[in-house]
Design a protein that fits this description.
Structural class: mainly alpha
Order of helices and strands: HHHHHHHHHHHH
Number of domains: 1
Largest sheet: none
Radius of gyration: 19 Å
Number of strands: 0
Strand content: under 5%
Amino acid sequence: MGELLMANEAWIRTTFFVGILLIIMGAEAAFPRRRRDIPRFVRWSSNLAIVVINALAVRLIFPFVAIGLAVLAQERGWGLFNIVDVPFAFACIISVLTLDLVVYLQHVMLHAVPAFWRLHRMHHTDLNFDVSTGVRFHPVEILLSMGIKLAVVAVIGPPAVAVLIFEILLNATSMFNHSNLRIHVAVDRVLRLLVVTPDMHRVHHSIHPNETNSNFGFNLPWWDRLLGTYRPQPREGHEGMTIGIEQFRSPRELTLHRMLVQPLRGPASGYPVNRRNKEPE
């Protein structure tokens, strides 16, 4: 089973990625939440190019990805669930929950440490908010994230299928909760009890620092509620709010080469969680 997943992991993930991307693109076109200020081609050409660069970087730097390490850990008896005998379903559920909590904590860390914020702010400098924003991450951040994920896999020894489920869910929910999709307020109110919705995560992309530093969850919404980082709505409403950060507001900054060198430009001030002179609530 493990070898079969390793052999087909890339195709499985790519198929889900492309399929979900196309579905959400269609849904955004049919039921848009906000008016689009910048032509889609200007942003999408760079945002999707980043996906290709990130995939190549991960394959180049790491000899195997999380699923491969999960298979190796099972063969070598590494990690908690390869030492402690527990039901397979239990191991899968706890593994997915643990990985999702780590992603939440990693996201908070990216906002708390100025050096890491330099990497992560590229994600926040998109001037519109749609499904392509959900795949717009700096390659160095992606490599850092993969390193953290591999460390967690080595420690907990999750079943390989649980890692594959988590990876697919993370990609799918990142595209969904970044989508420019209008969902009825009553449906959103119920849905955000189970998953991070676009209206919930859009608050995180507000230009106001105290809104940027909220709603860190990508997949499950529970960590924000439990750990005190949940903010239900933006102060200016979803149609009136400004997306992005104060730095890099020129449309020229949406080009691929400027995105890649952005961590080296300007100060890393204003938005880190532990910054001085915080904006009042």
